[in-house]
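Exercise 7.
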Amino acid sequence: MRTTTKQLLASAAVAASGALMVAAPASAQSSGASTYRAELQALNGSGGSGTATLTLNGDQATITETVSGLASTLPASLKGGPYPHVQHIHIDGQGVCPTTAADANNDGVLSTTEGGPSYGPIGTSLTTSGDTSAAAGLSLNVAPTGSTFSYSRTITLDAKSLAAVTSGKGVVVVHGLDPAKLPKAGLSPSDLVPALPLAATSPALCGTLVASTQMGQMPSGAPQTGGGSTSGTREVGTFVAGGGLVAAAAIALGLRKRAARTA
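Solution. The predicted structure, written as tokens, is:
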């Protein structure tokens, strides 16, 4: 059967469309954003759990978090009310969560100081508003409260916190324990704020931020988007799309010349 000019033009259009579709995933990955996730595990027998996700674009980090099973209300000795759970991204440590072996004085409570070698000092405070520096690390009035909470905020990471997260050594730690679930040492003065009981500032949840595989990841061997440059991906996409369009245009031009000769 003789192929008509219209049929060949339609085929050329399909070829160009297919080339653009090939290029689309590369364009979708050119934003430069990368995602890190932490599974928050209980420390000090807190009974809590949670997840934290950090989406990073440059130094802008969007942190979303869901937590449950933590201490709900403050002890009557602290005038009651919803329990504030200060939380942070800890840096410059080993990038891991401590085990019970880190309880150096064997009092049955793993303090923030005892866990320090594992997760390091505060890099960024995950506050609900205002300051996010280490200086706000113990600001109870801007901490999430209650046994269950959801948290979401976009903040700017300083250079050290950014380096810790991208190198796999950023650790999310949520503090605040129920003294009733701890040995008597839980009511002794805090290693950080002596006016508070040890339980109030000790770690309850901990998880290391780990890079997540992005949706629509390129096949093995192609440029990755997690933390490196995506310029190569964009160039490949542009080349493929451009090549498809040029091919379609050439076919169309040839067909027009052929039709003119046979007219």
